[in-house]
Amino acid sequence: MIDESLQTQNQQSKKKGYKDSLKSMDTEETFDLIFYRPIGYMWALLAKSLGITPNVITIASIFLGIGAGICFYFNNIWINIAGVILLVWADSFDSADGQLARMTGQYSRLGRILDGLSGEIWFTAIYVAICLRENHTSHFFMTHLWAIWVFAAITGFFHGIQAAMADYYRQFHLYFLKGKEGSELETAQPLWDQFHALSWKRNFFQKITMGFYANYTTSQEKRTPWMQKLRKTLKEKFGNTIPQWFRDKFRKKSLPLMKYTNILSFNTRSFALFAAILIFQMPWLYFAFEVIVLNIILVYMVVRHEHICKSFVKELQNV
Fold first, then answer.
1. 273 in Cβ contact with 194 (< 8 Å)
2. What is the pLDDT of residues 145-183, one digit of tens each?
3. How far apart are alpha carbons 216 and 226 in whole angstroms?
4. Cα separations in angstroms, 106 against 52, 237, 307
5. Can you give the pLDDT at residue 19?
6. Which of these, 155, 140, 119, 168, lies nearest to 289 by C-alpha position?
7. CA distance 55 to 53
8. pTM to 2 decimals?
């Protein structure tokens, strides 16, 4: 009986540890919960036992993602499958670094920047590989070498916006769900103040990093005017303590939009990429998917979220 009780306690402890490693059930994607999060949790436990930091895992994921991109250059199904495996491995590390940070409390702004940058590096490598491959295998792109590179540049531009906005809306939702300590929501002006306070001579790398992050946050704010008005109105009405009744109301409205932030994240992109390369054997179709399908979802998500924020601003002004 004692052994059974200890076993039950251990199982409960493991379940709690796994649950605590997640951001929130509101923002988790179903496939992540089924596949990536359990694998990421195992990587995180191993890293914790070896004293490996989240940032080291993030950097390792960058190399795996670049390796995946190289594999997608070759017009060979087995090498392409190896690329799929490497990209899945990279994303399991991307899951693990966040889970490890939550398990150990090793949060840092550098870690957040690296985490966001890692995905951009993966896809930059993949875009370059697709362009080079199409220039060597597609009759149209062999005749018009520039066309696929222009297509890739346009796709990359929209990819950055899609990823940034999906992340911003998730952090905004987490802010109301868990409070400031459970969210990585930032405000651009304090970041620019920190940037200007740093010295190019003494803090060169830190200043570059802060400039990148401040610009990233500024771009998010410019695309969400009603969200910024809502943040300002909440500050004026309630100071730094937003009442629970408002948190609950906002969560209820925002929750249905979390599925769109997840669609604009990694899994849907990877499924489309794998289909374009492995099934259709036309890698350029992935660019079309990002530019057409994901942009439609992006516009819908932004319009819906701005409408929600606008309605709350008007409601608060009448309180």
1. no
2. 999 999 999 999 999 999 999 999 999 999 999 888 778
3. 18
4. 11, 33, 36
5. 85
6. 155
7. 5
8. 0.92
Fill in the DSSP letter of residue 289.
Answer: I
Q: Are the C-beta atoms of 42 and 100 separated by less than 8 Å?
A: no
The amino acid at residue 256 is P
> Tell me: the pLDDT tens digits for 188-212?
999 999 999 999 999 998 999 999 9
SS3 236: helix
Residue corresponding to tokens 């849907």:
268
27 near 170, Cβ under 8 Å? yes
Q: Which of 5-14, 68-77, 269-278 has the lowest mean pLDDT?
A: 5-14
Q: What is the residue whose two structure tokens read 């993030």?
A: 58
Residue type, 213: Y
- Largest separation between any pair of C-alpha atoms in the chain: 75
Compute the distance between CA of residue 218 and CA of residue 189 in angstroms, rounded to an integer.
Answer: 8
- Rounded CA-CA distance 262/168 in Å is 12
- DSSP code of residue 224: -
Per-residue pLDDT for 1 more than 60?
Answer: no
3-class state of residue 250 by DSSP: helix
Going by C-alpha positions, the residue among 184, 165, 166 that lies closest to residue 175 is 184
User: Contact 151/290 with Cβ under 8 angstroms?
Assistant: no
